[in-house]
User: Which sequence fits this backbone?
């Protein structure tokens, strides 16, 4: 059962335009969402996060939107730059039980920014 | 220097062999995790540890074992490797932070394992 889904395996965007990466989840208990970026031969690096008490979080060119009723979140990158080309993973976690915070990851979306 | 390091970065082994993947961190975090990544499946949690005396199974622990030798070190072992354990393995750390707060995990560079 895939609790976190990224339905687009790949996305190609022109440099300077907006990149929108989408993620859907099924578990209504999730209350914290994160986006990670991964370059080849490197581990995932934390990009941005959002708590379920918010519907938007912004950090420079990156904005994450959360629609709890639709169980959907998206990452917007504006403007897109060639260095943004990477695989992006969304992840979600539920409120810790007995101190456990476990992340559930989506399958990833490969973003390619074209010059 | 990297905060989370993994050794080896690449490993080829044969079916039935025992191998160990090592993870070290300088972030001072108590919590450490092992994940595997398969194409099209994202990252799946194998084991996690919240301190030196705490070990917990994740989603896919069968065929794996771990050892938390110190706060900074967390090793993953494949007791008898099989080809479907061919994958990319990542170690991660996190800090529990404020009570009720939400944690961010920080990942190592990964170990690419091929089991023939």
Assistant:
């Amino acid at each position: 059962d895939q609790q976190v889904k990224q339905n687009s395996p790949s996305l190609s965007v022109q440099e300077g335009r907006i990149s929108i990466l989408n993620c859907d989840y099924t578990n209504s208990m999730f209350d914290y969402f994160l986006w990670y970026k991964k370059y080849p031969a490197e581990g995932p690096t934390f990009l941005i996060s959002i708590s379920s008490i918010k519907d938007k979080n912004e950090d420079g060119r990156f904005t994450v939107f959360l629609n709890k009723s639709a169980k959907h979140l998206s990452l917007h990158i504006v403007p897109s730059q060639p260095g943004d080309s990477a695989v992006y993973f969304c992840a979600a976690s539920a409120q810790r039980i007995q101190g456990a915070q476990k992340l559930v990851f989506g399958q990833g979306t490969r973003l390619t920014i074209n010059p | 220097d990297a905060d989370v390091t993994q050794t080896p970065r690449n490993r080829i082994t044969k079916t039935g062999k025992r191998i160990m993947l090592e993870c070290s961190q300088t972030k001072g975090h108590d919590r450490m995790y092992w994940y595997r990544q398969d194409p099209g499946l994202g990252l799946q949690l194998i084991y996690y540890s919240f301190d030196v005396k705490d070990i917990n199974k994740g989603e896919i622990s069968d065929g794996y074992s771990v050892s938390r030798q110190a706060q900074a070190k967390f090793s993953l072992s494949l007791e008898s490797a099989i080809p479907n354990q061919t994958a990319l393995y990542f170690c991660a750390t996190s800090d529990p932070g404020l009570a009720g707060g939400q944690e961010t995990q920080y990942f190592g560079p990964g170990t690419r394992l091929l089991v023939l």
Observations:
- The longest strand of chain B covers residues 43-51.
- Residues 66 and 76 of chain B are 5 Å apart (CA to CA).
- The two ends of chain B are 33 Å apart (CA to CA).
